[in-house]
Write a structure and sequence with these properties.
49% helix, globular, SP0561-like, mainly alpha
Length: 74
């Protein structure tokens, strides 16, 4: 998972990660932009650092699926 990963792909593959988007006030589950927008697009739109969001998404995946989850470039 990188800042260039599409938000909808994150939510489809790792639905538990909605908690990270919710934490930062990113209503990705209801936003049409999530279909084609990247994590970086969403973070910047909300005035957030994309790398912070990616790091927390990876941590969320690791907690749910083991340490290797969330580290691929997809």
């Amino acid at each position: 998972m990188t800042k260039d990963t599409i938000i909808a792909d994150v939510l489809r593959e790792h639905p538990e990660c909605i908690e990270v988007f919710d934490k930062y006030g990113m209503p990705c589950r209801t936003c049409a932009g999530a279909v084609s927008g990247t994590i970086a697009d969403g973070a910047i739109m909300h005035g957030l650092d994309p790398e912070t969001i990616v790091r927390e998404l990876r941590e969320c995946c690791a907690r749910r699926h083991g340490n290797a989850a969330g580290t691929s470039a997809s």
